[in-house]
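Ticket #4471: structure output looks truncated?

Reporter: J.K.
Steps to reproduce: submitted the chain below (133 residues) through the standard prediction queue, then opened the result file.
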Amino acid sequence: MINHNTDHLKTNKQFMLGNGLLAFAVFIIVALFFYLSFREQGKKEERRYAESYAISLVKGFTGSDMQVLVNDSVLYNGAVQSEPLTFSITRFAENSSVIIVDNATEQMAVFELSGQGGVYNFERKDGEVEQMP
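Returned output as attached by the reporter:
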């Protein structure tokens, strides 16, 4: 007499063993993926630039409440007491812009900065900020 019940249990046991091995393989692949992606993040290093910028508010700013930013970094925020008001900053990004904001009127002027650094002088005429040649 053949016991069909043991054949059925043997098939279920093989099926469960196969599923367990498949789940273990998926777990190993996910763990390997996380390991490789975190390892790559650690290798990223911050790029350093040698260039520097000199930014000067030369004429027309005295007594005004101004804000000067390079990209999203605030260099100055307050009333300009005397001119010229000069800032020196080392380049820290691939592309940079200087943003000059009149806090009273919320008028904003944006100027691109070159990748080679340099001196940038600004004056204000009739409420408009202009870059001097």
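Triage note (M.O.): checked the attachment and the full token line is present. The longest strand covers residues 52-59.
Status: closed, working as intended.
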